[in-house]
């Protein structure tokens, strides 16, 4: 064997083709095509699922100090901002508070 792994390449090609078909289906389908109710109902949760999927890896694993597993400062800042957002529902205040807490933690921190 030459060490070439076909299963990995086939998985990537299949996932790419599946993604293309899913994304193109909304463009290629005729305007009068009926979309099942269960699919329409599930699409309202997409935005709520995408936001944590983008934010959580950035919060946990970005700028991780040497020897650490997670970035504790970002977790603390996100927790404080999340608690503020849950209580006030203020988007701009949440972003400002999260940034200020993160900056203060980085400034005061011995790490």
How would you describe this protein?
There is one protein chain. This protein has helices spanning 6-28, 37-43, 46-61, 72-88, 91-108. It is an all-alpha fold. The chain has one domain. Helix 4 (72-88) runs antiparallel to helix 5 (91-108). 5% of the residues are buried.
List the helices and strands and how they pair.
Blueprint: H1 6-28, H2 37-43, H3 46-61, H4 72-88, H5 91-108
Helix pairs in contact: 4-5
Choose one word for the global shape: flat
Structural class: mainly alpha
The CA-CA distance between the termini, in Å, is 48 Å
Radius of gyration: 21 Å
Which consecutive residue ranges, at least 5 long each, have pLDDT under 50? none
| Domain count | 1
Sheet of most strands: none
Mean pLDDT: 88
SSE run: HHHHH
Work out the strand percent: under 5%
Compute the number of strand runs: 0
User: How many H/I helices?
Assistant: 5
Q: Helix amount, in percent?
A: over 70%
